[in-house]
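Bench notes, afternoon.
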Amino acid sequence: MSTNIINKLSFTMLLLISSAMAALGQENVLDRYIKEAFEHNQGLQQRNFQLEKSLLALKEAKALFYPQVGVAGSYTKAGGGRTIDIPVGDMLNSVYSTLNTLTNSQKFPQLPNQSVLLNPDNYYDLHVRTSLPLINTEIWYAQKIRKEAITLQQATVNVYKRSLVKDIKTAYYQYYQAVKAVEIYNTALAQVQENIRVNKSFLDNGVRNNTSLTRAQAEQQKIETSITEAQNKQQNAQAYFNFLLNQPFMTPITLDSTVFTPALAGISEAKGSLEAGSSISSREELLQLDQQKKIADLQYKLSSSYLIPKLSTFLDLGSQAYNWNVDNKSRYYMWGVNLQWDLFAGGQRKYKAKQAASDIQVIQASYNETNNALQLEVNTAQNNYHTAAASFTNAQTQLQFSEKYYNDQLKVYKAGQLLYIELLDAQNQLTSARLQLSVAFAQVQTALAEIERTQATYKL
Protein backbone atom coordinates (compact mmCIF):
# COMPACT_ATOMS: atom_id res chain seq x y z
CA MET A 1 0.00 0.00 0.00
CA SER A 2 1.46 3.35 -1.05
CA THR A 3 2.19 6.20 1.32
CA ASN A 4 -0.40 8.41 -0.37
CA ILE A 5 -3.16 5.86 0.19
CA ILE A 6 -2.17 5.49 3.85
CA ASN A 7 -2.19 9.23 4.29
CA LYS A 8 -5.61 9.50 2.67
CA LEU A 9 -7.04 6.78 4.91
CA SER A 10 -5.56 8.43 7.99
CA PHE A 11 -7.01 11.74 6.98
CA THR A 12 -10.44 10.17 6.38
CA MET A 13 -10.44 8.53 9.82
CA LEU A 14 -9.38 11.77 11.44
CA LEU A 15 -12.17 13.56 9.62
CA LEU A 16 -14.79 11.08 10.82
CA ILE A 17 -13.56 11.27 14.43
CA SER A 18 -13.55 15.06 14.37
CA SER A 19 -17.09 15.03 12.95
CA ALA A 20 -18.34 12.82 15.81
CA MET A 21 -16.57 14.98 18.39
CA ALA A 22 -17.98 18.05 16.74
CA ALA A 23 -21.54 16.76 16.97
CA LEU A 24 -21.10 15.97 20.66
CA GLY A 25 -19.53 19.35 21.37
CA GLN A 26 -22.25 21.14 19.49
CA GLU A 27 -24.95 19.38 21.46
CA ASN A 28 -23.35 20.28 24.77
CA VAL A 29 -22.77 23.93 23.92
CA LEU A 30 -26.19 24.48 22.40
CA ASP A 31 -28.01 22.55 25.11
CA ARG A 32 -26.38 24.76 27.71
CA TYR A 33 -27.47 27.90 25.90
CA ILE A 34 -30.96 26.52 25.30
CA LYS A 35 -31.28 25.67 28.99
CA GLU A 36 -30.29 29.23 29.85
CA ALA A 37 -32.89 30.55 27.43
CA PHE A 38 -35.57 28.36 29.00
CA GLU A 39 -34.72 29.92 32.36
CA HIS A 40 -34.36 33.57 31.36
CA ASN A 41 -36.16 34.27 28.07
CA GLN A 42 -38.81 36.92 28.69
CA GLY A 43 -41.30 35.62 26.15
CA LEU A 44 -41.14 32.14 27.65
CA GLN A 45 -41.55 33.52 31.16
CA GLN A 46 -44.76 35.25 30.10
CA ARG A 47 -46.18 31.97 28.86
CA ASN A 48 -45.09 30.19 32.02
CA PHE A 49 -46.97 32.79 34.03
CA GLN A 50 -50.06 32.03 31.96
CA LEU A 51 -49.59 28.35 32.73
CA GLU A 52 -49.39 29.10 36.44
CA LYS A 53 -52.56 31.14 36.09
CA SER A 54 -54.31 28.14 34.51
CA LEU A 55 -53.20 25.93 37.39
CA LEU A 56 -54.60 28.39 39.89
CA ALA A 57 -57.85 28.57 37.92
CA LEU A 58 -58.19 24.79 38.22
CA LYS A 59 -57.68 24.98 41.97
CA GLU A 60 -60.33 27.69 42.09
CA ALA A 61 -62.78 25.44 40.22
CA LYS A 62 -62.08 22.52 42.58
CA ALA A 63 -62.69 24.77 45.59
CA LEU A 64 -66.30 25.29 44.43
CA PHE A 65 -67.08 21.69 45.43
CA TYR A 66 -66.10 22.30 49.05
CA PRO A 67 -68.38 23.82 51.68
CA GLN A 68 -68.46 27.59 51.75
CA VAL A 69 -68.48 29.15 55.23
CA GLY A 70 -69.18 32.80 55.89
CA VAL A 71 -70.39 35.17 58.59
CA ALA A 72 -73.35 37.45 57.97
CA GLY A 73 -74.92 39.93 60.32
CA SER A 74 -77.26 42.90 60.45
CA TYR A 75 -78.40 45.52 62.97
CA THR A 76 -81.41 47.80 62.60
CA LYS A 77 -82.45 50.93 64.42
CA ALA A 78 -85.88 52.11 63.35
CA GLY A 79 -88.49 54.75 64.14
CA GLY A 80 -91.79 55.51 62.45
CA GLY A 81 -93.15 53.71 59.46
CA ARG A 82 -95.92 51.19 59.25
CA THR A 83 -97.47 49.70 62.36
CA ILE A 84 -99.92 46.97 63.35
CA ASP A 85 -102.72 48.05 65.67
CA ILE A 86 -103.68 45.41 68.27
CA PRO A 87 -106.92 46.30 70.22
CA VAL A 88 -105.85 44.67 73.47
CA GLY A 89 -107.75 47.17 75.62
CA ASP A 90 -110.97 46.89 73.65
CA MET A 91 -110.90 43.12 73.96
CA LEU A 92 -109.86 42.72 77.60
CA ASN A 93 -110.84 45.86 79.55
CA SER A 94 -114.57 44.93 79.84
CA VAL A 95 -113.64 41.46 81.02
CA TYR A 96 -111.16 42.86 83.53
CA SER A 97 -113.82 45.27 84.86
CA THR A 98 -116.24 42.40 85.42
CA LEU A 99 -113.56 40.39 87.20
CA ASN A 100 -112.71 43.33 89.43
CA THR A 101 -116.42 43.69 90.34
CA LEU A 102 -116.79 40.01 91.10
CA THR A 103 -113.63 39.91 93.18
CA ASN A 104 -114.28 43.29 94.78
CA SER A 105 -110.67 44.22 93.95
CA GLN A 106 -108.47 46.01 91.40
CA LYS A 107 -106.32 43.07 90.48
CA PHE A 108 -107.08 43.40 86.76
CA PRO A 109 -105.92 46.80 85.44
CA GLN A 110 -107.21 48.52 82.34
CA LEU A 111 -104.98 47.92 79.27
CA PRO A 112 -104.35 50.37 76.43
CA ASN A 113 -104.60 49.36 72.78
CA GLN A 114 -101.16 48.51 71.26
CA SER A 115 -99.54 49.84 68.08
CA VAL A 116 -96.51 47.67 67.07
CA LEU A 117 -93.86 49.09 64.71
CA LEU A 118 -93.23 46.77 61.74
CA ASN A 119 -89.59 47.87 61.31
CA PRO A 120 -87.51 46.14 64.02
CA ASP A 121 -85.97 48.68 66.36
CA ASN A 122 -82.58 48.02 68.04
CA TYR A 123 -82.56 44.52 66.54
CA TYR A 124 -79.60 42.38 65.49
CA ASP A 125 -79.14 39.13 63.58
CA LEU A 126 -75.69 37.48 63.45
CA HIS A 127 -75.13 34.00 62.04
CA VAL A 128 -72.57 31.70 60.42
CA ARG A 129 -73.79 30.16 57.15
CA THR A 130 -72.34 26.96 55.70
CA SER A 131 -73.44 26.14 52.16
CA LEU A 132 -72.64 23.18 49.95
CA PRO A 133 -73.62 22.48 46.32
CA LEU A 134 -75.22 19.07 45.85
CA ILE A 135 -76.05 19.14 42.15
CA ASN A 136 -74.53 21.80 39.90
CA THR A 137 -73.44 20.93 36.35
CA GLU A 138 -71.90 24.37 35.79
CA ILE A 139 -69.34 23.77 38.54
CA TRP A 140 -68.57 20.27 37.27
CA TYR A 141 -68.04 21.39 33.68
CA ALA A 142 -66.05 24.45 34.81
CA GLN A 143 -63.58 22.15 36.51
CA LYS A 144 -63.29 19.93 33.42
CA ILE A 145 -62.79 22.94 31.15
CA ARG A 146 -60.06 24.43 33.31
CA LYS A 147 -58.31 21.09 33.52
CA GLU A 148 -58.20 20.91 29.73
CA ALA A 149 -57.07 24.53 29.63
CA ILE A 150 -53.93 23.56 31.57
CA THR A 151 -52.95 21.05 28.89
CA LEU A 152 -53.70 23.68 26.27
CA GLN A 153 -51.48 26.23 27.99
CA GLN A 154 -48.70 23.67 28.42
CA ALA A 155 -48.84 22.99 24.68
CA THR A 156 -48.62 26.74 24.09
CA VAL A 157 -45.49 26.88 26.24
CA ASN A 158 -43.96 23.98 24.31
CA VAL A 159 -44.77 25.61 20.97
CA TYR A 160 -42.86 28.69 22.07
CA LYS A 161 -40.01 26.55 23.42
CA ARG A 162 -39.58 24.76 20.10
CA SER A 163 -39.55 28.04 18.20
CA LEU A 164 -37.05 29.38 20.71
CA VAL A 165 -34.79 26.34 20.21
CA LYS A 166 -34.83 26.90 16.46
CA ASP A 167 -34.17 30.63 16.85
CA ILE A 168 -31.27 30.00 19.23
CA LYS A 169 -29.65 27.46 16.94
CA THR A 170 -30.16 29.70 13.91
CA ALA A 171 -28.71 32.69 15.75
CA TYR A 172 -25.81 30.55 16.99
CA TYR A 173 -24.83 29.55 13.47
CA GLN A 174 -25.35 33.06 12.18
CA TYR A 175 -22.91 34.25 14.80
CA TYR A 176 -20.50 31.50 13.76
CA GLN A 177 -20.84 32.60 10.14
CA ALA A 178 -20.12 36.23 11.11
CA VAL A 179 -17.07 35.23 13.16
CA LYS A 180 -15.85 33.05 10.32
CA ALA A 181 -16.26 35.91 7.85
CA VAL A 182 -14.04 38.13 10.01
CA GLU A 183 -11.42 35.39 10.16
CA ILE A 184 -11.55 34.84 6.40
CA TYR A 185 -11.20 38.54 5.65
CA ASN A 186 -8.29 38.77 8.11
CA THR A 187 -6.63 35.89 6.27
CA ALA A 188 -7.21 37.65 2.97
CA LEU A 189 -5.75 40.82 4.47
CA ALA A 190 -2.63 38.92 5.53
CA GLN A 191 -2.31 37.57 1.98
CA VAL A 192 -2.60 41.05 0.52
CA GLN A 193 -0.06 42.37 2.97
CA GLU A 194 2.29 39.60 1.86
CA ASN A 195 1.63 40.63 -1.74
CA ILE A 196 2.52 44.21 -0.85
CA ARG A 197 5.77 43.02 0.66
CA VAL A 198 6.60 40.95 -2.41
CA ASN A 199 5.67 43.78 -4.78
CA LYS A 200 7.85 46.22 -2.83
CA SER A 201 10.70 43.74 -3.14
CA PHE A 202 10.10 43.45 -6.87
CA LEU A 203 9.96 47.25 -7.16
CA ASP A 204 13.17 47.71 -5.21
CA ASN A 205 14.93 45.16 -7.42
CA GLY A 206 13.55 46.71 -10.61
CA VAL A 207 11.68 43.56 -11.58
CA ARG A 208 8.24 45.26 -11.73
CA ASN A 209 6.83 48.77 -11.76
CA ASN A 210 4.67 50.28 -9.02
CA THR A 211 1.36 49.37 -10.71
CA SER A 212 1.13 46.02 -8.92
CA LEU A 213 2.02 47.65 -5.61
CA THR A 214 -0.67 50.30 -6.03
CA ARG A 215 -3.24 47.66 -6.95
CA ALA A 216 -2.32 45.59 -3.88
CA GLN A 217 -2.59 48.63 -1.61
CA ALA A 218 -6.05 49.41 -3.07
CA GLU A 219 -7.08 45.83 -2.43
CA GLN A 220 -5.88 46.19 1.15
CA GLN A 221 -8.22 49.15 1.70
CA LYS A 222 -11.09 47.19 0.19
CA ILE A 223 -10.53 44.22 2.47
CA GLU A 224 -10.22 46.44 5.56
CA THR A 225 -13.64 47.89 4.71
CA SER A 226 -15.03 44.36 4.38
CA ILE A 227 -13.54 43.48 7.78
CA THR A 228 -15.31 46.45 9.36
CA GLU A 229 -18.64 45.38 7.83
CA ALA A 230 -18.09 41.78 8.95
CA GLN A 231 -17.29 42.91 12.50
CA ASN A 232 -20.51 44.93 12.61
CA LYS A 233 -22.48 41.89 11.47
CA GLN A 234 -20.74 39.84 14.13
CA GLN A 235 -21.72 42.31 16.85
CA ASN A 236 -25.33 42.35 15.61
CA ALA A 237 -25.46 38.54 15.57
CA GLN A 238 -23.96 38.45 19.05
CA ALA A 239 -26.51 40.98 20.34
CA TYR A 240 -29.45 39.04 18.88
CA PHE A 241 -28.24 35.73 20.30
CA ASN A 242 -27.86 37.25 23.78
CA PHE A 243 -31.26 38.91 23.40
CA LEU A 244 -32.82 35.45 23.06
CA LEU A 245 -31.05 34.44 26.28
CA ASN A 246 -32.03 37.70 28.02
CA GLN A 247 -28.39 38.53 28.63
CA PRO A 248 -26.37 41.73 28.05
CA PHE A 249 -25.92 42.11 24.31
CA MET A 250 -22.12 41.98 24.38
CA THR A 251 -21.87 38.85 26.54
CA PRO A 252 -19.20 36.59 24.97
CA ILE A 253 -20.46 33.55 23.07
CA THR A 254 -18.58 30.28 23.30
CA LEU A 255 -17.61 28.81 19.92
CA ASP A 256 -15.75 25.51 20.01
CA SER A 257 -13.65 25.22 16.86
CA THR A 258 -14.25 21.46 16.68
CA VAL A 259 -17.98 22.07 16.54
CA PHE A 260 -17.73 23.81 13.21
CA THR A 261 -15.44 21.42 11.35
CA PRO A 262 -17.23 21.30 7.97
CA ALA A 263 -16.87 17.57 7.31
CA LEU A 264 -18.77 16.01 4.45
CA ALA A 265 -19.13 12.76 6.42
CA GLY A 266 -21.05 14.54 9.15
CA ILE A 267 -23.46 16.02 6.62
CA SER A 268 -23.98 12.62 5.00
CA GLU A 269 -24.78 11.03 8.36
CA ALA A 270 -27.28 13.77 9.12
CA LYS A 271 -28.84 13.29 5.72
CA GLY A 272 -29.21 9.56 6.36
CA SER A 273 -30.93 10.13 9.71
CA LEU A 274 -33.21 12.67 8.09
CA GLU A 275 -34.77 10.04 5.87
CA ALA A 276 -35.90 8.07 8.94
CA GLY A 277 -39.24 9.85 9.16
CA SER A 278 -41.21 13.02 8.72
CA SER A 279 -43.99 12.66 11.27
CA ILE A 280 -45.81 15.69 12.61
CA SER A 281 -47.87 13.74 15.13
CA SER A 282 -45.90 15.21 18.04
CA ARG A 283 -46.40 18.84 17.01
CA GLU A 284 -47.85 20.85 19.88
CA GLU A 285 -49.89 22.96 17.45
CA LEU A 286 -52.10 19.94 16.79
CA LEU A 287 -52.29 19.23 20.50
CA GLN A 288 -53.45 22.80 21.02
CA LEU A 289 -56.28 22.32 18.55
CA ASP A 290 -57.17 18.98 20.13
CA GLN A 291 -57.48 20.68 23.49
CA GLN A 292 -59.49 23.53 22.02
CA LYS A 293 -61.85 20.98 20.53
CA LYS A 294 -62.23 19.22 23.89
CA ILE A 295 -62.94 22.54 25.59
CA ALA A 296 -65.51 23.46 22.92
CA ASP A 297 -67.16 20.06 23.38
CA LEU A 298 -67.38 20.64 27.12
CA GLN A 299 -68.83 24.09 26.49
CA TYR A 300 -71.47 22.48 24.29
CA LYS A 301 -72.34 19.95 26.98
CA LEU A 302 -72.47 22.72 29.56
CA SER A 303 -74.86 24.75 27.41
CA SER A 304 -77.03 21.66 26.89
CA SER A 305 -77.24 20.81 30.59
CA TYR A 306 -79.63 23.62 31.54
CA LEU A 307 -82.47 21.12 32.12
CA ILE A 308 -80.57 19.60 35.05
CA PRO A 309 -81.65 21.41 38.23
CA LYS A 310 -79.24 22.98 40.69
CA LEU A 311 -79.53 21.76 44.25
CA SER A 312 -77.65 23.03 47.30
CA THR A 313 -78.00 22.94 51.06
CA PHE A 314 -77.17 25.37 53.84
CA LEU A 315 -76.97 25.58 57.62
CA ASP A 316 -77.17 28.80 59.67
CA LEU A 317 -75.98 28.99 63.30
CA GLY A 318 -76.51 32.34 64.95
CA SER A 319 -78.24 34.65 67.38
CA GLN A 320 -80.98 37.28 66.93
CA ALA A 321 -82.69 39.46 69.48
CA TYR A 322 -83.47 43.04 70.59
CA ASN A 323 -81.18 45.26 72.63
CA TRP A 324 -78.17 43.00 71.99
CA ASN A 325 -79.49 40.29 74.24
CA VAL A 326 -77.75 36.92 73.96
CA ASP A 327 -79.38 34.00 75.78
CA ASN A 328 -80.98 30.67 75.16
CA LYS A 329 -83.93 32.29 73.42
CA SER A 330 -81.80 34.38 71.03
CA ARG A 331 -79.64 31.52 69.75
CA TYR A 332 -81.00 29.57 66.80
CA TYR A 333 -80.15 27.26 63.87
CA MET A 334 -81.69 27.04 60.45
CA TRP A 335 -81.13 24.29 57.86
CA GLY A 336 -82.54 24.19 54.41
CA VAL A 337 -82.26 23.08 50.78
CA ASN A 338 -82.28 25.39 47.75
CA LEU A 339 -83.55 24.30 44.35
CA GLN A 340 -83.12 26.19 41.08
CA TRP A 341 -84.56 24.74 37.89
CA ASP A 342 -84.60 26.87 34.76
CA LEU A 343 -87.43 25.55 32.60
CA PHE A 344 -87.85 28.35 30.08
CA ALA A 345 -85.54 31.19 29.04
CA GLY A 346 -86.80 32.15 25.61
CA GLY A 347 -84.44 29.71 23.83
CA GLN A 348 -81.27 31.39 25.11
CA ARG A 349 -79.65 28.17 26.28
CA LYS A 350 -80.60 26.34 23.09
CA TYR A 351 -79.01 28.96 20.84
CA LYS A 352 -75.96 29.09 23.07
CA ALA A 353 -75.56 25.32 22.66
CA LYS A 354 -75.80 25.70 18.88
CA GLN A 355 -73.04 28.32 18.99
CA ALA A 356 -70.83 25.90 20.91
CA ALA A 357 -71.54 23.20 18.30
CA SER A 358 -70.46 25.64 15.58
CA ASP A 359 -67.23 26.30 17.48
CA ILE A 360 -66.46 22.57 17.38
CA GLN A 361 -66.86 22.53 13.60
CA VAL A 362 -64.65 25.60 13.21
CA ILE A 363 -61.89 24.04 15.31
CA GLN A 364 -62.09 20.78 13.36
CA ALA A 365 -61.67 22.67 10.09
CA SER A 366 -58.75 24.56 11.58
CA TYR A 367 -57.19 21.28 12.69
CA ASN A 368 -57.39 19.86 9.16
CA GLU A 369 -55.88 23.02 7.68
CA THR A 370 -53.09 23.15 10.28
CA ASN A 371 -52.28 19.48 9.75
CA ASN A 372 -51.80 20.07 6.02
CA ALA A 373 -49.79 23.23 6.65
CA LEU A 374 -47.46 21.45 9.07
CA GLN A 375 -46.93 18.61 6.61
CA LEU A 376 -46.07 21.21 3.98
CA GLU A 377 -43.57 22.73 6.41
CA VAL A 378 -41.89 19.35 6.82
CA ASN A 379 -41.63 18.79 3.09
CA THR A 380 -40.32 22.30 2.51
CA ALA A 381 -37.77 21.97 5.32
CA GLN A 382 -36.51 18.67 3.91
CA ASN A 383 -36.19 20.12 0.42
CA ASN A 384 -34.32 23.12 1.83
CA TYR A 385 -31.98 20.78 3.66
CA HIS A 386 -31.22 18.76 0.54
CA THR A 387 -30.45 21.98 -1.32
CA ALA A 388 -28.24 23.24 1.52
CA ALA A 389 -26.40 19.90 1.74
CA ALA A 390 -25.75 19.92 -2.01
CA SER A 391 -24.52 23.51 -1.81
CA PHE A 392 -22.22 22.58 1.06
CA THR A 393 -20.74 19.67 -0.92
CA ASN A 394 -20.18 21.92 -3.91
CA ALA A 395 -18.65 24.60 -1.70
CA GLN A 396 -16.16 22.08 -0.30
CA THR A 397 -15.12 21.04 -3.79
CA GLN A 398 -14.92 24.64 -4.92
CA LEU A 399 -12.68 25.51 -1.97
CA GLN A 400 -10.31 22.68 -2.79
CA PHE A 401 -10.03 23.88 -6.38
CA SER A 402 -9.63 27.49 -5.30
CA GLU A 403 -6.87 26.66 -2.82
CA LYS A 404 -4.95 24.66 -5.43
CA TYR A 405 -5.45 27.34 -8.06
CA TYR A 406 -4.26 30.09 -5.72
CA ASN A 407 -1.18 28.16 -4.59
CA ASP A 408 -0.24 27.44 -8.19
CA GLN A 409 -0.74 31.05 -9.23
CA LEU A 410 1.25 32.30 -6.23
CA LYS A 411 4.24 30.15 -7.17
CA VAL A 412 4.13 31.39 -10.76
CA TYR A 413 3.76 35.01 -9.60
CA LYS A 414 6.73 34.80 -7.24
CA ALA A 415 8.72 33.43 -10.15
CA GLY A 416 7.85 36.61 -12.05
CA GLN A 417 5.85 34.80 -14.73
CA LEU A 418 2.32 36.04 -13.82
CA LEU A 419 0.55 39.37 -13.77
CA TYR A 420 -0.58 40.57 -10.33
CA ILE A 421 -4.15 41.01 -11.54
CA GLU A 422 -4.26 37.24 -12.23
CA LEU A 423 -2.93 36.46 -8.76
CA LEU A 424 -5.46 38.87 -7.26
CA ASP A 425 -8.24 37.11 -9.13
CA ALA A 426 -7.14 33.76 -7.70
CA GLN A 427 -6.96 35.27 -4.21
CA ASN A 428 -10.47 36.73 -4.50
CA GLN A 429 -11.76 33.37 -5.70
CA LEU A 430 -10.19 31.71 -2.67
CA THR A 431 -11.71 34.25 -0.25
CA SER A 432 -15.10 33.90 -1.91
CA ALA A 433 -14.89 30.09 -1.72
CA ARG A 434 -14.05 30.23 1.99
CA LEU A 435 -16.95 32.59 2.66
CA GLN A 436 -19.30 30.43 0.61
CA LEU A 437 -18.25 27.32 2.56
CA SER A 438 -18.98 28.99 5.92
CA VAL A 439 -22.32 30.22 4.59
CA ALA A 440 -23.20 26.78 3.20
CA PHE A 441 -22.27 25.08 6.48
CA ALA A 442 -24.43 27.51 8.48
CA GLN A 443 -27.30 26.97 6.03
CA VAL A 444 -27.08 23.20 6.49
CA GLN A 445 -27.20 23.51 10.28
CA THR A 446 -30.03 26.04 10.08
CA ALA A 447 -31.95 23.69 7.78
CA LEU A 448 -31.44 20.86 10.27
CA ALA A 449 -32.74 23.11 13.07
CA GLU A 450 -35.80 23.87 10.94
CA ILE A 451 -36.43 20.16 10.36
CA GLU A 452 -36.03 19.52 14.07
CA ARG A 453 -38.65 22.21 14.65
CA THR A 454 -41.10 20.91 12.06
CA GLN A 455 -40.89 17.35 13.40
CA ALA A 456 -40.76 18.41 17.09
CA THR A 457 -37.88 16.05 17.80
CA TYR A 458 -35.95 18.18 20.28
CA LYS A 459 -36.45 16.86 23.81
CA LEU A 460 -37.88 19.67 25.89
